[in-house]
């Protein structure tokens, strides 16, 4: 029958599984080594063979006194010095290499370097016991080494600056944003128990943070974008339930605009001038003021002409950069017909006003438009004007009287008549009365004949022609007044022989 054997363990670190605490002496060695007998041979005629049972060995990360004795394993199947011990696994002969080692004769297991729980939180090794000839004395057993966490990692916010938005006038309890942080320490310990707080937010105290979730919400009324548009909060997260390591961050909270300010004219009345007979031109600007966010639909103005423009001669558009109303003339105005307009103009926003917006009396304005006169050209009532003369009429016979009118009825002016086109110099025109007559002077210039005019017709008068004449051909002019009648009656294209010398 196989002789009974005993496996003893000397634990030089606290054995939590058994509730055993060891006092430490110098160099990290136990003051009184403790030998444990995790199992013994049962009472009875037979022995049940069992593998070694070793409780987990705990060691703190960042342990600086190395090498550090963790545990001693022993087998009593041979006399002391007759057993060879070895361990294998991660931290020994697998990556990361060389963290643990064992004295092959004593069975002492050592820690050779500082541990980092955030890299490896536990190691599972296999322990072996052989005789000097290499035969197995004990079944291989597991040796688990647990790395105990220390608070060696600060909590870290997921970003340095958090950004949130909240509308002005928001009620208390409105969600704004969530600040989140992480801690690399053991989440099952206080080393990673995080607490959030607001260190600084100004004197208003409009926001609060949930200390466990990091949610930021409003806590009171008073958000007004026109007063404060951005709030800068300094946040902090701390581990150890708020008593450990800390890290700061910033929260930028933007107050979003609502249309709680109506547009207002800067004055109740505007005055502009415009020249008559002009259209498609800007004649003035109507200035407004709005406290809401520039460039937004809550700020942009919309103008309407309510009264004073029955014919639609005016229009108002919005300058998107200044928010001014640009007044323009879209139909030509007549000073003589109407020289003054009084427009009633209203202003609104593109968006509807919020119910919280105050009432205003400056949403209406009067615009006085003065139409200035310009010197307009007179015009002939009959154009072209046809005139005739009886055969044989002597030179100086009145042919017709021209009549012109001046549109500037409010500024009467004297009219002066003149011939604009008479290349043959056949006509006389009274500059004051507009009476036209036949002239004999051209007969004294026998070498002259007028050049042809466009389209084969010779107008006697450009602006108000008497009639049209056929382009002349070289002819011998009458030598005396008695030959004029024959000259006039001669058919076009016929050639008249010159009279006697």
TrEMBL record:
<feature type="signal peptide">
    <location>
        <begin position="1"/>
        <end position="17"/>
    </location>
</feature>
<dbReference type="GO" id="GO:0005912">
    <property type="term" value="C:adherens junction"/>
</dbReference>
<dbReference type="InterPro" id="IPR015919">
    <property type="entry name" value="Cadherin-like_sf"/>
</dbReference>
<dbReference type="GO" id="GO:0000902">
    <property type="term" value="P:cell morphogenesis"/>
</dbReference>
<keyword id="KW-0325">Glycoprotein</keyword>
<dbReference type="GO" id="GO:0044331">
    <property type="term" value="P:cell-cell adhesion mediated by cadherin"/>
</dbReference>
<dbReference type="Pfam" id="PF00028">
    <property type="entry name" value="Cadherin"/>
</dbReference>
<feature type="region of interest" description="Disordered">
    <location>
        <begin position="443"/>
        <end position="501"/>
    </location>
</feature>
<feature type="domain" description="Cadherin">
    <location>
        <begin position="381"/>
        <end position="434"/>
    </location>
</feature>
<dbReference type="GO" id="GO:0016342">
    <property type="term" value="C:catenin complex"/>
</dbReference>
<keyword id="KW-0472">Membrane</keyword>
<keyword id="KW-1003">Cell membrane</keyword>
<dbReference type="GO" id="GO:0009986">
    <property type="term" value="C:cell surface"/>
</dbReference>
<dbReference type="GO" id="GO:0007043">
    <property type="term" value="P:cell-cell junction assembly"/>
</dbReference>
<keyword id="KW-0106">Calcium</keyword>
<dbReference type="GO" id="GO:0034332">
    <property type="term" value="P:adherens junction organization"/>
</dbReference>
<keyword id="KW-0677">Repeat</keyword>
<feature type="compositionally biased region" description="Basic and acidic residues">
    <location>
        <begin position="492"/>
        <end position="501"/>
    </location>
</feature>
<dbReference type="InterPro" id="IPR039808">
    <property type="entry name" value="Cadherin"/>
</dbReference>
<protein>
    <submittedName>
        <fullName>Cadherin-15</fullName>
    </submittedName>
</protein>
<dbReference type="GO" id="GO:0016477">
    <property type="term" value="P:cell migration"/>
</dbReference>
<dbReference type="GO" id="GO:0007156">
    <property type="term" value="P:homophilic cell adhesion via plasma membrane adhesion molecules"/>
</dbReference>
<dbReference type="GO" id="GO:0016339">
    <property type="term" value="P:calcium-dependent cell-cell adhesion via plasma membrane cell adhesion molecules"/>
</dbReference>
<dbReference type="GO" id="GO:0045296">
    <property type="term" value="F:cadherin binding"/>
</dbReference>
<feature type="domain" description="Cadherin">
    <location>
        <begin position="266"/>
        <end position="380"/>
    </location>
</feature>
<feature type="domain" description="Cadherin">
    <location>
        <begin position="158"/>
        <end position="265"/>
    </location>
</feature>
<keyword id="KW-0130">Cell adhesion</keyword>
<dbReference type="InterPro" id="IPR020894">
    <property type="entry name" value="Cadherin_CS"/>
</dbReference>
<dbReference type="GO" id="GO:0005509">
    <property type="term" value="F:calcium ion binding"/>
</dbReference>
<feature type="domain" description="Cadherin">
    <location>
        <begin position="51"/>
        <end position="157"/>
    </location>
</feature>
<keyword id="KW-0732">Signal</keyword>
<dbReference type="InterPro" id="IPR002126">
    <property type="entry name" value="Cadherin-like_dom"/>
</dbReference>
<dbReference type="GO" id="GO:0008013">
    <property type="term" value="F:beta-catenin binding"/>
</dbReference>
<keyword id="KW-0479">Metal-binding</keyword>
């Amino acid at each position: 029958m196989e002789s009974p054997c005993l496996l003893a363990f000397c634990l030089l670190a606290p054995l939590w599984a058994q509730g055993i605490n060891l006092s430490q002496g110098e160099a990290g060695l136990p003051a009184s080594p403790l030998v444990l007998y995790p199992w013994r041979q049962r009472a009875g005629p037979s022995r049940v063979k069992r593998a070694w049972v070793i409780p987990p060995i705990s060691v703190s990360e960042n342990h600086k006194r190395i090498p550090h004795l963790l545990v001693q394993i022993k087998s009593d199947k041979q006399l002391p010095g007759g057993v060879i011990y070895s361990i294998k696994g991660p931290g020994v002969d697998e990556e990361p290499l060389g963290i643990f080692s064992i004295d092959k004769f004593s069975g002492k297991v050592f820690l050779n370097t500082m541990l980092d729980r955030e890299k490896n939180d536990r190691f599972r090794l296999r322990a072996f016991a052989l005789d000097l000839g290499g035969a197995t004395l004990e079944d291989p057993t597991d040796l688990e080494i647990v790395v105990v966490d220390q608070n060696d990692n600060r909590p870290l916010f997921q970003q340095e600056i958090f950004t949130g938005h909240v509308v002005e006038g928001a009620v208390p309890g409105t969600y704004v944003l969530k600040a989140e942080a992480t801690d690399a320490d053991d989440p099952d310990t206080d080393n990673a128990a995080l607490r959030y707080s607001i260190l600084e937010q100004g004197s208003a105290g409009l926001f609060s943070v949930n200390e466990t979730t990091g949610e930021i919400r409003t806590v009171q009324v008073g958000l007004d974008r026109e007063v404060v548009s951005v709030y800068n909060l300094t946040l902090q997260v701390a581990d150890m339930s708020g008593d450990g390591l800390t890290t700061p961050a910033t929260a930028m909270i933007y107050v979003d605009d609502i249309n709680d300010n109506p547009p207002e004219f800067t004055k109740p009345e505007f005055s502009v001038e415009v020249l008559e007979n002009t259209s498609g031109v800007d004649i003035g600007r109507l200035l407004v003021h709005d406290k809401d966010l520039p460039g937004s639909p809550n700020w942009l103005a919309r103008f309407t002409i309510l009264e004073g423009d029955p014919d639609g001669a005016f229009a108002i558009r919005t300058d998107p950069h200044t928010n001014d109303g640009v007044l323009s003339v879209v139909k030509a105005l007549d000073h003589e017909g109407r020289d003054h307009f009084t427009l009633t103009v209203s202003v609104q926003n593109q968006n509807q006003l919020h119910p919280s917006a105050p009432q205003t009396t400056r949403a209406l304005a009067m615009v006085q438009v003065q139409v200035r006169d310009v010197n307009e050209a007179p015009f002939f009532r009959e154009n072209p004007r046809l005139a005739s003369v009886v055969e044989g009429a002597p030179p100086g016979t009145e042919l017709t009287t021209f009549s012109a009118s001046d549109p500037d009825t409010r500024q009467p002016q004297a009219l002066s008549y003149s011939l604009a086109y008479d290349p043959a110099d056949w006509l006389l025109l009274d500059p004051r009365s507009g009476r036209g007559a036949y002239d004999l002077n051209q007969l004294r210039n026998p070498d002259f004949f007028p050049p042809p005019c466009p389209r084969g017709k010779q107008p006697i008068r450009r602006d108000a022609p008497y009639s049209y004449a056929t382009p002349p051909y070289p002819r011998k002019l009458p030598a005396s007044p008695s030959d004029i009648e024959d000259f006039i009656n001669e058919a076009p294209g016929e050639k008249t022989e010159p009279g006697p010398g």
